[in-house]
Amino acid sequence: MPSNLILFNKPFRVLSQFSAEGDKSTLADFIDAPEFYPAGRLDFDSEGLLLLTNQGALQHIIASPDFKMPKTYWVQVEGDISDSALEKLRQGVELKDGLTKPAKAERMAEPDVWERSPPVRYREAIPTSWLSLQIREGKNRQVRRMTAAVGFPTLRLIRYAIGPYTLENTEIGQWKHIEPTDILLKEVTQFEEQRKRKTATSNRRRPSEKGHSRPQGNKISHGEGVARRKPSSKPASRSRRK
C-alpha cells in the first residue's frame, strides 16, 4: 500500500495547490494522487521540496511551527555574502512582522542542481554566491526578506530539506511515496491522543440536558448549527502556497 506521505520536487513557477488559478501551472500538472494535499507552502517562484499527505495529523505536524521541523534552503544571493551578514542571520533579523528566530547560516559552494527555466539573469559586473539557511518558523516569504534585510537579495531559492527528508535522488518535477519516520509517527500518535483527551474533557464539561424538556416546536438536536445547513457542493479548499 502507498504511504500517507509524498515527496515532490517542485519546479519554478508552479503553484503549491491543485486548483486552477488563471493559466499558472499547478500540482495537478505533475501529481496524480487523489486526496493528497500539501503540508505547508512553497512560493510560486521558489523551487524544491514539498511534502504532501492525505492524513490531517501529518499535515498539521509538518506544516505547524509548533513542531519545529527544520527547513533547509539553498539560496543564491546577489553579491558575495559577507561574514557579518551570515552572523546577523544566525542571531535573528528584524523584519516588519518581528524578529526572526536564530537561523543556521553557512556559505556554500554552488550546488550541482538542475537548470532553472527561465534562468537567473546573469550580470557580469555583479557576482553571486550561495548559502545554506535553516529555519524553524514560517513567516511569509521569510528567507527572501531575511537575505534582503542583511543586504543580499535572493536570486534563486531552493528548499532542500524538511526535517529528515531531502531532495536527494529526486529529479525536478518528480514525486514519490515515502515512509514517515518513527519520530514523525510518534508525534502523530501523541497529537491524536492529545486531541482525543481534549474532546473527552470538552464532552464531560458540557451540561447534560437529560430530563429537561423543550417545547416540541423548538426542539434542538445536538449539532443543530450543522444539521440545518444545506450540503455544500463546493470542493474542499486546498493549501495554497508558501
Automatic annotation (TrEMBL):
Please state the Enzyme Commission number of this protein. Answer: 5.4.99.-
Enzyme class per UniProt: isomerase
Q: Does the keyword Isomerase apply?
A: yes
**Pfam families noted in UniProt:** PseudoU_synth_2
Here the segments flagged for biased composition (Basic residues) are 196-205, 228-242
What does the entry give for GO biological process?
pseudouridine synthesis; rRNA processing
Q: Where are the transmembrane segments?
A: none
- Keywords from the named record: Isomerase
Annotated spans, Disordered: 191-242
Q: Name one GO molecular function term.
A: pseudouridine synthase activity
Q: Describe the location of the Pseudouridine synthase RsuA/RluA-like domain by residue ranges.
A: 4-149
Quick check: keyword Ubl conjugation in the entry?
no
| Family according to the record | Belongs to the pseudouridine synthase RsuA family.
What's the protein name?
Pseudouridine synthase
Q: Which organism is it from?
A: Marinomonas alcarazii
